[in-house]
Design brief:
Number of strands: 18
Number of helices: 10
Structural class: alpha+beta
Strand order of the largest sheet: 5-4-3-11-7-8-9-10
Shape: globular
Number of domains: 2
CATH topology of the largest domain: L,D-transpeptidase catalytic domain-like
Order of helices and strands: EEHHHHEEEEEEHEEHEHHEEHEEHEEE
Radius of gyration: 21 Å
Largest sheet: 8 strands, mixed
CATH class of the largest domain: Mainly Beta
Length: 398
């Protein structure tokens, strides 16, 4: 059960989200002492650790990090489709970036999750509350959605749930990465939990605030959804606290369900991330279904013929087919494509929004449009059209 602590701060009664405090001061319990041994006893995890641990140790050594990390911090950026993994070994140390992973697929848009079936990935401050070695999506790490803020602000009867970081690189309304990446993340999180970090923080931001292009997109979004302005500012405050201190901030939830972050102090110059080369706009395809007619909430997600495993195989095969389209000297690229499945299950629109090159993007768009018919999304007993996003990883074996 999640523990809640009440404190008085600035005259307001507030809930303390215990993930940063517990992360700093958690002591190894009798459960956590044996946690890693229990994980190793599961054949699938035992095999993963045999294959991965030596490589991870070498990667830690190459970056001057101490293995294993006693503290792990995960932060994700929805619009930028990135997940960062930060580590340290003492509570007083500053976190150091170990790796950045690409998020493979997306559904929904910017803004917090507010009800079941809204296809939104949550935004906010969470922690890992489940290790699932028997996931249908290879491996998965569960998040404590809905948290205290979500319980106050989301639909009372159906806030949604079952939010995971998982493998298989397919859209399920969660945060999907590749199987190899979830194996690394799972191992590092398991070691940290075994060493006493009972609450591994996972912060999900709308955008990477270091990216001018992403911030511009967020500002355009807030012009339409002004009601989320205060929420997104609270996310920005927590982002800048970590950027300045490289420590996880103390975040509280006040009586109105709003996040309040401890003061980061004077704003420092945050290095801007280099902008990727803009993708050439798709000029041959016009979105046939207006944005306002696309489903924002569904009772059933669209299903590729054969299910998620078949869709994963389709994506993997497409990535291999695109290798010849890599530019000279290029070994790897991530291509994000948005696509619409209409109410009959037919793919009617595909548009690459990041990565690739003109030839590759054209080929990917055409392949998506030629996909076989899906079982369409459903809402209130009726078939509805929906827009999804999917990453294709194109990597040469040379």
């Amino acid at each position: 059960m999640t523990k809640i602590c009440f404190i008085k701060k600035s005259g307001l009664l507030a809930f303390v989200l215990l993930l940063p405090i517990a992360a700093l001061f958690a002591q190894a319990s009798s459960y956590s002492v044996n946690f890693l041994d229990y994980q190793r006893s599961i054949p699938k995890i035992g095999d993963v650790m045999k294959r991965k641990e030596d490589t991870l140790i070498k990667q830690f050594q190459a970056k001057g990090l101490t293995w294993p990390a006693k503290f792990v911090y995960i932060r994700s950026f929805k619009y930028d489709c990135e997940l960062e993994l930060w580590v340290k070994n003492k509570s007083t140390d500053k976190y150091k970036l170990f790796k950045t992973y690409k998020i493979c697929a997306l559904a929904g848009s910017l803004g917090p999750k507010r009800m079941a079936g809204d296809y939104q990935v949550p935004e906010g401050f969470y922690y890992i509350n489940e290790f699932n070695p028997r996931s249908l999506y290879h491996l998965s790490l569960g998040l404590n959605y809905p948290n205290e803020s979500d319980r106050l602000l989301s639909d009372i009867s159906q806030p949604g749930g079952d939010i995971y970081i998982h493998g298989s690189c397919v859209t399920t309304g969660c945060i999907p990465i590749t199987d190899e990446q979830i194996e690394e993340l799972y191992i590092l999180a398991a070691h940290a939990k075994d060493l006493g970090q009972d609450f591994i923080p996972v912060h999900i931001f709308p955008v990477d605030f270091r990216s001018p292009r992403s911030v511009t997109y967020l500002n355009r979004y807030l012009q339409t959804f002004a009601e989320n302005g205060s929420f997104e500012r609270s996310m920005k405050n927590a982002f800048y606290y970590f950027e300045k201190n490289h420590q996880v901030p103390l975040v509280i939830v006040n009586g109105r369900g709003e996040y309040v972050t401890e003061d980061a102090g004077p704003v420092v110059d945050i290095p801007k991330k280099p902008e990727s080369k803009p993708v050439k706009k798709n000029t041959h395809a016009v979105q046939p279904i207006p944005e306002e007619e696309l489903a924002k909430v569904v009772d059933r997600q669209p299903i590729f013929p054969g299910g998620n495993e078949a869709f994963k195989n389709f994506i993997d095969s497409l990535g291999k087919d695109m290798i010849n389209d890599l530019e000279p000297g290029q070994r790897k690229t991530y291509v994000m494509v948005e696509y619409i499945i209409d109410k009959t299950g037919k793919p009617v629109y595909a548009n690459v929004i990041s990565g690739g090159n003109d030839k590759m993007n054209e080929d990917i768009e055409q392949t998506f449009l030629k996909m076989p018919g899906w079982l369409p999304a459903m809402r209130s007993g009726m078939n509805v059209p929906i827009k999804l996003k999917q990453t294709i990883i194109v990597e040469s074996g040379e």
